Amino acid sequence: MSEFKSNDGFSISRRSFLKTFGTSAAVAATAQMEAVAKELEKANAEKVLGPEPLPITLQINGKPMKVQVEPRTTLLDALRNHLPLTGSKEVCDRATCGACTVLLDDKPVYSCSMLAIEAQRRAITTIEGLAANGKLSKVQEAFIDKDALMCGYCTPGFVMSVTALLKANPHPTADEVRHACSGNLCRCGAYPGILQAALKAAGVSTTAKTEVISYARLA
Ligand code: FES
Ligand code: FES
Fold it and tell me: What is the reported pLDDT for 219?
């Protein structure tokens, strides 16, 4: 049997070395696997929510609002059916029409296509949050001045998309307005007035020609 001998006379056989080392390695590996399993269990427990309703807080129009919703609840559903905020409209409920548009950290999103639980800790702005001290925002005023609606069902969504655009780009061109509103549909065909309203809110002068062009390109 091969034997290792140190300078101070200490000796250990190859077999006992392998036995001792092997046992220690196995113990260490098992401990490591147990630690990883515990971490995974903890992470999984944190990720699984519901299906029961759970309390969440949404920051809406600058105020914290508490609501109890199932994890599958969309932001639009939470606003309209769990909170008294029915300004955002449900039309297609599948990310097509833009009637449900709200701002999330000043960016327009389809509230029918995100979960309310995902919107926690984000600044949500709905159409109800635009008027300050009872005074309509300049975008809302412009929609009235330019008669930019017919049935009005798409209007909150358009107002929110134009509001987001003007926050990012205060003086857009007509094409930039068209691009910003390309995710919103108006079944009544009020596009010319919508374009005029957006440009008026931006302080961009328009002509009758702008309206004619908008008919040709948006209708
Ligand atoms: S209702 Fe959300 S996009 Fe149509
Ligand atoms: S005004 Fe009726 S859908 Fe736009």
Answer: 40
Look at ligand 2, atom 4, and give the residue with the nearest C-alpha: 186
DSSP assignment of 65-86, as one string? EEEEE-TT-BHHHIIIIISS--
pLDDT, one tens digit per residue, over 59-95 is 999 999 999 999 999 999 999 999 999 999 999 999 9
Residue with the smallest CA separation from ligand 1 atom 3 is 95
CA 97 to ligand 1 center in whole angstroms: 5
Question: Which ligand is the nearest neighbour of the Cα of 197?
Answer: 2
What is the pLDDT, as a whole number, of residue 42? 74
Closest by Cα among 135, 133, 129, 91 to 113: 91
Give residue 213's pLDDT: 44
CA atoms within 13 A on the CB side of 18: 6
Domains and CATH numbers, the chain: 46-129 (3.10.20.30), 130-219 (1.10.150.120)
Ligand 2 center to 150 CA (angstroms): 5
